[in-house]
Amino acid sequence: MTKKINDSFQTSLAQGGENTTQPFKPIIPGIFTSTTYQRDEDNQYRSGRVYSRADNPTYDAPEKLIAQLEHAADAKLFASGMAAATAVFQALKPGDVVLAPDIMYWALRNWLKGLATDAGLHVHFVDMTQLDQVENKITQLQPKLIWLETPGNPMWTVSDIRAIADIAKHQGARVAVDSTVATPILTRPLELGADIVMHSATKYLNGHSDVIAGALATRENDDFWKRILAIRAQGGAVPSPMDAAQLLRGMRTLFLRVRESCDSAMFLAQQLEQHPMVSEVLYPGLPSFAGYEIACKQMEGGFGGMLSIRLVGGEQQAVGTAAKTRLWHRATSLGGVESLIEHRASIEGAGTPVPDDLLRLSVGIERKEDLLADLVHAIEASA
C-alpha cells in the first residue's frame, strides 16, 4: 500500500519556486547569459557574482527548488548527472575506500572501475540489498563514502537507505544516494539519514529529453560540500543558462509526470506479470519483488516509472520485441514524457550484470492501455 503524495510538492513545483526576488518580480525567472560581472567602484564584488564558470543567477530558482524538495541545506546544478556524481568522488582523497552497489548505472560503474581507481580510490562493489554484507564490508574496509542507487538501474534493486545510513554513521562514513529514478516526489534520502543526494536532472527532473543536467543536494554545508563546490567551479562542471531555465520549466510539471508514470508503470507491471511469455517483471511496486517491503517503507505515493521485464524466449525475443514496438522508442535514457525501451545488455557490453533476456522500460505519460497493447503485440510477434 502506498502513502499519499505530499500535495505541497505539487504546489511548489507548479509555482516554480520563489522567484519574487528578481527585478520586476517575473512569474518566469529571467535568463542571464552574461559570462562576467562588473566590479564595484572600489573593486569589490558586492553582488556576489564574478564569473559564470562558478555560478549564474539563472541557477538560483532551480537550485532553491531542489533544495526545498529534498529538505537540503544547499543544492547545486551541474553540467550532467555524471558531472554531479563524479564530483562527489573527486572530493575524496587518494587511498580513500568507497563502497558502491553491484547493480548501478553502468557509465558511473565503468568510471569507478577505470578513472576513479586510476586516481587512487579503492572501490569495492557490494550487494546493497543485503544488510549483513554491507555492515561487514563497512566494518572491515572503513570506507569514507558509501554510494547508493535506489531503485538501482536497471534491475530496480531497492536499498534500505535508513538502515545503511545508521551503520555508516557509527563508522564515520558518508552516504550519497543516486535518487534519479525515485525523484524527491517519492523518496527524500536526506530525511532517511543520507548526507548527499544526486540527480541526473536530464531524466525525471527535466522530463522532456531536451536538457543535459545534474544536481547535488546536501544535508550540511560542511567542508566536504565546499570541496565539491570547488571542483564544480574550478572544473567548469556547470550547465548553460538556457539549460538551467529549461530545467526549471520541466520541473514545474514533475509532480504530474511522476504521478502519471507511476500509475502506468504499476498497471503495466501487474498486467505483464500475468503474460506467459514474460518470465519475470522487476518492479518495486509488485509484492513478488524482492525489495517490495523496503520500497513501501521509503517510497511515498508510488514506486516510480521504471520497470524491466525478462522474456522466456531469451535474448533473441528481447531484441526482437524492442525492434517491433511502435509506441515504445528504442533509445537510451529514461524519465521523459515518451516511453522508451532498451535491451540493456547490448548497451552495457561484456561484463554487465544485466541478463541478456531483459528489456528496460521507461514509462512515459501516454495512455497506459495503448502502451500495454503495443508491447504485448511486439512480445508475441517476436516469439
Description:
The protein is an alpha/beta fold and 383 residues long. The chain folds into two domains: 7-251, Aspartate Aminotransferase, domain 2, CATH 3.40.640; 254-381, Aspartate Aminotransferase, domain 1 (Alpha-Beta Complex). The protein has 14 helices and twelve strands. It has helices spanning 7-15, 60-70, 81-90, 106-118, 131-141, 161-171, 183-186, 223-235, 241-251, 254-272, 292-298, 314-324, 344-348, 368-381; strands at 74-78, 97-101, 122-126, 145-149, 174-178, 196-199, 214-218, 278-282, 306-311, 329-330, 340-342, 358-362. It has a seven-stranded mixed sheet, with helices on both faces. Strands 8-9-12-11-10 form a five-stranded mixed sheet. Helix 3 (81-90) packs parallel to helix 4 (106-118) and helix 12 crosses helix 14 (368-381). The relative contact order is 0.13. The model has no long low-confidence stretch (mean pLDDT 94).
Query: If you consult CATH, what is the topology of the largest domain?
Result: Aspartate Aminotransferase, domain 2
What would you say the CATH architecture of the largest domain is?
3-Layer(aba) Sandwich
Q: What is the mean predicted local confidence, pLDDT?
A: 94
> Count of helical segments?
14
The low-confidence runs, each spanning 5 or more residues with pLDDT under 50, are none
Fourth-tier CATH superfamily name of the largest domain: Type I PLP-dependent aspartate aminotransferase-like (Major domain)
Dominant shape = globular
Strand order of the largest sheet: 1-7-6-5-4-2-3
Query: In what range is the share of β-strand residues?
Result: 5-15%
Query: What class, by secondary structure content?
Result: alpha/beta
Number of beta strands: 12
Biggest beta sheet summary: 7 strands, mixed
At the first level of CATH, the class of the largest domain is Alpha Beta
N-to-C span = 35 Å
**Alpha carbon gyration radius:** 21 Å
Percent in helix? 25-40%
